[in-house]
Amino acid sequence: MSEKVVGLLVGREDTFPKPFLEVVDRKGGPHGVRAEMVLFGGAKLDEEPRYSVIVDRISHEVPYYRAHLKGEVLKGTVVVNDPFWWEADEKYFECVLARRLGVAVPKTVVLPNKSYISDINELSLRNLRYPLDWDGIIEYIGLPAILKPNTGGGWKDVFRVDSKEELLWAYDQTGSAAFGYRPKTMILQEFIKWQDYVRCICIGRTHVYPMRYDPTAPFHERYVIDRPIEGELRERAVHDATALVDALGYDMDTVEFAVRDGTLYAIDFLNPAPDFDSFSIKDEAFAWVLDRMSDLVIDYALGRARPPWRGEHRWWRFAR
Ligand SMILES: Nc1ncnc2c1ncn2[C@@H]1O[C@H](COP(=O)(O)OP(=O)(O)O)[C@@H](O)[C@H]1O
Ligand SMILES: [Mg+2]
Questions:
Q1: For the chain, how many structural domains are there in total?
Q2: Which end of the chain has less neighbouring CB within 10 Å, N or C?
Q3: Cα 174 to Cα 162: distance, rounded to the nearest angstrom
Q4: In a shared domain, residues 47 and 118
């Protein structure tokens, strides 16, 4: 029996890696599966892939990892999550998809960038409506509203705006030097004045762990454990979160809902490297994550499960 290696790619997080590697070794060992931290650097075309499975928690920040991972996929490694889809995914697209799935989302508009790299001039932009119909956009979305990046995370550059003036001020910031040389594409979203808030950790597209969440608390106190999500709210959160991760093909994700007048609005479900830190999600959820994640990668390593995106790209015909 040839040994199967599961690799882990991580960023700064420190509580998840060691226990994850240990649990995969413990459960996978008898089946010839073991786990280690990935070591990458200078991928060569002819190199044989070392890993049967790679859990990728950081390629959104380290572009070289993503480039390397794309090659590994073609060479036969199962990468969680699909680096091709993760790179393509955006919040506006996801909102359109949610509507198709019957999952409620806030009214959303995607906006042209505020500014461009210096080589772009009026000729390059002649297909853009200018000025934008801000009054029409505000009439559709309503106020207050949320202006946030179409791709992003960690609450970076998320603005709540209460008036047209605040909106235009915030939009202008997205073209400023503070945004670096690649101004972000932003979406404007109806602000959901929620009475309750639910965050679901989703693994393997079928396992969902809903938790009450307080977005107004400091980061490490946001997951609320003494008031579990129960009954119909739980059922609906699980149902809608499953519909979203199944459609998106994410094997790890978190899906966040703001609950207003009994309706669950999906707010953020583009979290393909979800927070797994034990101090954040707390002990019970952390144990659940270790259990589900280890089962997932062991099943992939042993060929007992097939990644959702296998066969989805034209080039799959040439994959190993
Ligand atoms: N449409 C909205 N209505 C109400 N609150 C929102 C809305 N969009 C974002 N928020 C709040 O802002 C936070 C950050 O937005 P989010 O879309 O999760 O950005 P990020 O991808 O940076 O995490 C959310 O957790 C939520 O509390
Ligand atoms: Mg978020």
A1: 3
A2: N
A3: 17
A4: no
Picking from 134, 163, 190, the residue at the C-terminal end of a domain is 190
**Mutation test of ligand 1: which of 146, 147, 159, 265 has the most ligand atoms closer than 8 Å to its C-beta?**
146
Q: Are 208 and 200 in contact (CB under 8 A)?
A: yes
Using most ligand atoms within 8 A of CB, pick from 95, 192, 268, 269 the residue to mutate for ligand 1.
268
Parent domain of 232: 193-271
DSSP-assigned states of every residue in 89-125? --HHHHHHHHHHHT-----EEE---S---TT--GGGG
Is the C-beta atom of 93 inside 6 A of ligand 1?
Answer: no
Give the pLDDT confidence score for residue 176 in this predicted structure.
Answer: 72
Mean pLDDT of the chain: 95
Structural domain includes residue 237: yes
Q: What is the DSSP string of 257-305?
A: EEEETTEEEEEE---SS----HHHH-HHHHHHHHHHHHHHHHHHHTTSS
Whose CA is closest to atom 19 on ligand 1? 155
Q: pLDDT confidence of 232, banded at 50, 70, 90?
A: very high
149 CB near ligand 1 (under 6 Å):
no
**Residue range 31-84, pLDDT digits in tens:** 999 999 999 999 899 999 999 999 999 999 999 999 999 999 999 999 999 999
Q: Which ligand is nearest to the CA of 148?
A: 1
Find the 192 Cα to ligand 2 centroid distance in Å.
14
Ligand 2 center to 60 CA (angstroms): 15
150 lines ligand 1 (CB under 6 A): no
Contact at 8 Å (CB) between 147 and 186? yes
Tell me what pLDDT residue 180 has: 62
